Amino acid sequence: MTVAEETEVTLAVGQQKELPVAPDPAGRHPDPEMHAILEIGVRSHGRPARPGAPVPGTGPALAEVLIVDTSRSMLHPAAKLHAAKDATVAAVRMLPDGTAFAVLSGRFDATLVHPGAGSAVLAVAGPGEREAAERAVRILDADGGTAIGPWLDLARWLLKDHPAPVKHVLLLTDGRNEHDHRAAMSLETALDACEGRFVCDAWGIGDDWDADLLLRITRRLHGRARAVRAESELTAAYEELVAGLLGTAVPELRIRLTPTPGTVIRQVKQVVPSEQELPPVPAGPGGRAAEYVTRAWGEEVRHFQVVLTADPAGRETGEDLQLAAVEIAVPDFGRPVRLPAPRPILVRWTDNPLDASRQHPGVRRHELYQQASAAVAGAYRAWLRGADGRDTADRELARALGLAAELGDAQLLGALRLIEAAPGTGRVRTGLKDVDWQHLILSSALTTPPEQPAVGSGEGSAAARGAGSAGTPPGSGTPPGAVPPASGSPREAAPPGATPHGSAEPALPVRADGLVECPGCKWLGPADSVYCGGRCGRPLRGAPA
After folding, report:
1. Averaged pLDDT, 424-445
2. Are 243 and 473 in contact (CB under 8 A)?
3. Contact 40, 91 (CB under 8 A)
4. How many other CB atoms are there within 10 angstroms of residue 486's CB atom?
5. pTM
6. Cβ(200)–Cβ(171) under 8 Å?
7. Can you tell me the distance from the alpha carbon of 6 to that of 12, in angstroms, rounded to the nearest whole number?
8. What is the DSSP secondary structure assignment for residue 446, as one 8-state letter?
9. Per DSSP, which regions of 83-204 are E strands?
10. Residue 125 pLDDT > 90, yes or no?
11. Nearest to 338 by CA among 7, 52, 1
12. Cα-based angle 443, 279, 157 (whole degrees, multiple of 5)
């Protein structure tokens, strides 16, 4: 696999800026939380026609570990093990020459199938290695139980010193990690050790896998949880996944937040295409900035929710103030990346007690998804109680259907209707199997951007700048989920001392040292700063047009 010739990253910040400083009519004090949605897109130019084809001056960018569940249950029926072998072989055949890889077998512990037990290094793809791996996979048998912690830990050990920018694990299981207590390493311990080391996609096969287990693994390891309904679907699913990996444009992207004094970062999480908490990592010595790591980007758009708190005491009302600056950073992986200009997250303190940042469509949409997922979980728990839970299961299913309709999510609606007795009844059909619910739980964990632009509200929004959005309206030429068009690229920076287009105020004078001084708190910053990065956070050159 090779990285693309040219890569561009786009950034837009969407928010409802107003936050109240006065209590509401019931006398309750306002929530000082500012919720903002970051829409980040990645696209490449000059990509090779064939995924994984060499780009001059680049080397292999992928190190891949394929884990096959070979516990005894994979023989019941044996079609599961046959499908796992076929899919693993198909994935290995797709790896370009020079790609590092290994195949593991998982039971109570993990065994290195290829390049062979005891090897301390990954195999390197070529005709001979691919054929040897296929022979080793074809003779796999199944026995023993399921303990996933050691599987992930062996993958971590194999990948830990490899220099490939993208380190990926593809895990397949038909079970529920039922022998975790017998394992040399528990799953939770393994996840702690593996977090941040590689990306893991986890797949379920058969009728007895656990959606919550797959989600637990993938949410910690920055991957996606999926499953096949029929064993025969697995090979095509693996081929599609590997093709996507070979098209990775950016191995790692970091969201850097620098809050102004008095602002606290409460939470950063991915909300599209799935929910994933992002823990902070140090952003260098000193300073207030924190970074949040996201991994393995193809040509795609993702949404992230940022939650900040700030104290309005002593701050002016009715004026845009900066709470934090958002930047995108990409570690050097040997290819140039065009990054967007930093964007501000703003607040406008208001005396209206009803104004709240949660009113922003992107924030509201994620809350609806959370409610839909909770309704699905509630319906499943009630269904497990049999006749005693029937009424509750019906109520929760009807609630989930209503939320999916409000979201306009056709994929989720389709998954819910597979559970519904008949269209429009809102009742759980009879004859369901547990695996039907597991597929629904996975579907309810996926999120999509809205059809209407969700990022930006008024001035400074993606729409106001002419940028494309993951939620561009139909007929605009950019379908939902597509990368924003080039018109969304950052504007050229204004020269020092110039007034940006649309500014409400003239530029501040530039000092001899090339800095400007905030007239409010005397903060010193770059000459092209639009907002003060100090205590007051006030506009220095007018809000962006």
Report:
1. 97
2. no
3. no
4. 12
5. 0.83
6. yes
7. 20
8. B
9. 100-106, 110-114, 123-124, 166-173, 199-204
10. yes
11. 7
12. 85
